[in-house]
Specification:
This protein has four helices and no strands. It is an all-alpha fold. The chain has a single domain (about 5-115), classed as Four Helix Bundle (Hemerythrin (Met), subunit A) (Up-down Bundle), CATH 1.20.120. The radius of gyration is 15 Å and the shape is globular.
Length: about 120
C-alpha cells in the first residue's frame, strides 16, 4: 500500500474525528435499540478502528470486526457519493462530501490491508 503524505494523514484523521463527534452527538437523541441507534453505534466502532489503524496503534482486530468496519465505511462512502451527485460543485456540501469520499477510500485501503493479516474471530 502506498504511504500517505503527512497532509493526507492529517486530513483523513480530521474527517474521522469529525465523523465520530457527529455520530456521538446524535446518538443520545436516538432511541436505544432502534435501527438508527445501531447504525450510529456501528459507525462509531468502525471509525475508531480506522483511526487506530491509521495511527498504527497496536490493536489486533478480528476478521469479523474488520469486515463489519469495511461494511460501515463503504456505506458512508456510498451515501457520500450519492450526496455528492446532488450537490452543486464548489458548494460547502460538495467539498464536505468530496473530503468524506477521499477519506473513506484511504480508510478502506487500510482496512483491506489489515484483513490480510487478521485472525479469525475469537
Amino acid at each position: 500500500m502506498d504511504s500517505l503524505t503527512e497532509q493526507q494523514m492529517k486530513d483523513t484523521l480530521k474527517v474521522i474525528e469529525s465523523s465520530i463527534v457527529n455520530c456521538e452527538k446524535i446518538q443520545p437523541k436516538l432511541k436505544e435499540g432502534s435501527p438508527s441507534f445501531s447504525l450510529s453505534k456501528n459507525r462509531i466502532k468502525a471509525l475508531y478502528i480506522a483511526q487506530n489503524l491509521l495511527l498504527n496503534k497496536t490493536c489486533s482486530y478480528s476478521k469479523e470486526d474488520l469486515e463489519q468496519a469495511i461494511a460501515q465505511i463503504t456505506s458512508i462512502k456510498n451515501k457520500s457519493t450519492s450526496g455528492l451527485s446532488r450537490a452543486k460543485e464548489g458548494s460547502s456540501t460538495y467539498t464536505r462530501f468530496s473530503n468524506l469520499i477521499r477519506a473513506m477510500n484511504i480508510i478502506l485501503a487500510h482496512l483491506n490491508e489489515a484483513m490480510k493479516t487478521a485472525k479469525e474471530s475469537c
